Amino acid sequence: MSPITGDxxxxxxxxxxxxxxxxxxxxxxxxxRYASDLREVFKQERAxxxxxxxxxxxxxxxxxxxxxxxxxxxxKHAERVAAYGxxxxxxxxxxxxxxxxxxxxxxxxxxxxxxxxxxILFKSSSLTAEEYALVRRHPVIGSExxxxxxxxxxxxxxxxxxxxxxxxxxxxxxxxxxxxxxAARVFAVADALDALTTxxxxxxxxxxxxxxxxxxxSAGSQFDPEVVAAFEEISDDAFERLxxxx
Length: 246
Ligand SMILES: [Fe+2]
Description:
single chain
């Protein structure tokens, strides 16, 4: 048996080092494959989530259009209110990114009107007390229709509470102030803005400037003053642009 020399030790250390390096390189290649697989999975998941969101939005728009198709003079009311509402929500600090269902609620706010007969909805003379009571039920009917549609989430609160007023004199629940969901308080201002700036059979459309004055005068009674303050930060031009893109 030959004696162990310094050369043997160096050769054996070198061999172990090379083996360790090969193992490390193999592990690194495996990790890179895992990372690449994960990136692919994330990409596919993101695409699926976007597709799902597009499908939800298309379904909501179809339902919203079906409701609006009955009503010739309001045109694209729901689309405009949704656009104004999203702008206003952002200015109010309500993060629509955290709650994308809010837009669904804006679009579907009047879905309960499907239960109101045309003869009442489009009556040119004043409504009887019973007829008015039926019209006032549309937020409750709407939220009942949508009750089991889970993906609408907070949007259903907009449907139920879009006619509440800051001072508690609204319906259906007579909620006061902060008890009214913020998205519904935002919606109320956007809805009034569109109603005022759209031609009606009994009056022409107001300018955005005039509508702004009307809304300002109702801060603290009909509308949340903080939402109106956020509304004041948005220019007439910005609202005009939103209207013209629809
Ligand atoms: Fe309504």
